[in-house]
Amino acid sequence: MNVSVAVCENHQQREAIGVCVQCRRRVCSECSTKVEGINYCVACLSGLAREGGRQVGARVQGSPGAAYATAGAYLVLLTAAMWALLHVVLPGG
Question: SS3 of 40, please?
């Protein structure tokens, strides 16, 4: 059985690990950069950086106050869930 393996567009001796979402080229681990779980080849990522119109990784660049508020809300939610769970597991306590 002859199985064909996808190879990197830039390095024919390396197996491709993904496809660039911009140009659809197959890329190896050296040629791929993941941003928020999405593969970009080196050329497309540098093109996006030059354009500046579309921010790659914009979710990472948030205000610290929003991050603290979100963390505080999760802490309150977690505390309420644990309190409710304890009342279910240990009734009458």
Answer: strand
Nearest to 44 by CA among 70, 25, 67: 25
Per the model's pLDDT, the better-predicted residue between 4 and 43 turns out to be 43
**Would you say 16 and 28 are in contact if contact means Cβ atoms under 8 Å apart?**
yes
Q: Which residues pair with 64 in a beta bridge?
A: none
- For the chain, the domains span 1-61, 62-93
The amino acid at residue 84 is A
Higher pLDDT pick, 3 / 66: 66
SS3 60: helix
Contact 31, 42 (CB under 8 A): yes
Residue 12 in contact with residue 5, Cβ under 8 Å? Answer: no
pLDDT in tens, 26-52: 999 898 888 888 889 988 888 887 777
Contact 10, 18 (CB under 8 A): no
Q: What gap in Å lies between CA 26 and CA 6, rounded to an integer?
A: 7
